[in-house]
Every structure is written in C-alpha cells, then in structure tokens.
Specification:
Elements (H helix, E strand, L loop, with lengths): L9 E6 L1 H12 L4 E7 L11 H5 L19 E6 L7 H9 L4 E6 L5 H4 L1 H14 L11
Parallel strand pairs: 1-2, 2-3, 3-4
Amino acid sequence: MIEALEIDRLVLLGDSIGGAAAVRYAAELPACVDGLILSNSGGFDRGGFLAGIWRSFRTAEAEQRALAARLTMPVLVAWASEDRIIRGSRSRAAIEAIPNGRVVMFQAGHSPFLGTALAFAAEARVFLCGLRRACCYTRGN
C-alpha cells in the first residue's frame, strides 16, 4: 500500500500487535522510516496473557525482541504503566536495546493514546517536531 501511494518516507505509529508490525517494517526497511512511535508494543513480551498467542507465531520471523537493536531511527516508546496485557517489566530488555529510543510512561491501561490522550498527543507532537523531516504547525500558522 505504501508503494501504491508513492510514499517514500514515513513515521509509523503502532499499538499492541500493530507495534509488532511497525517494528518489523522499520527493522527491515529503515531507509523508509523517519521515526517510530510504539505504544505498548506487542512482540517484546512473551509471557502472561499473550504467551499462547505468540506461540502461534513461533517462527524466526515472528521474533521481535531481536529486532529492537536494529531500529536505527528515532523511536518514542509510549508505555502505559497499568497495562495488564503487555507488561513493561517483561518488555524492558527489548526496549532498552533500541539505540535511539526514548521511553515515556503514562498512567493508563493498554493504550496510552486512549487513557491519557492529551498527554500522549503532547509527547507525540514533541517527538514528531524533533524529526528533521517533520513539519509541525500550530494554530495560526
């Protein structure tokens, strides 16, 4: 779809299992990704509730934790501290392996952009404005 739309460079935002897809895309095509926002990303936590689900992806290609170190673009890791589905404590090692990552914690459930929408939007805006290719506009501009 990205090729069909003739998009050369982009910023990806992935939440939960969408975060796993965004990590895969960014690791495989880093020249196409200016930045990455991960919101309680799946693929880094192999325990708890998701253990059975991730077993169904038991292939070398499904492993996300090893991809973290290959993310060369700026990465905003937005993490909801009260997530009972994907635990930050079990994802920490992968998150810390991201070379150019910045972690922001939100007091919310599984999706910080829903539980703390204004705070999430403010952090995302700061991140996007910090990217060289991003242009941020304010009201009146």
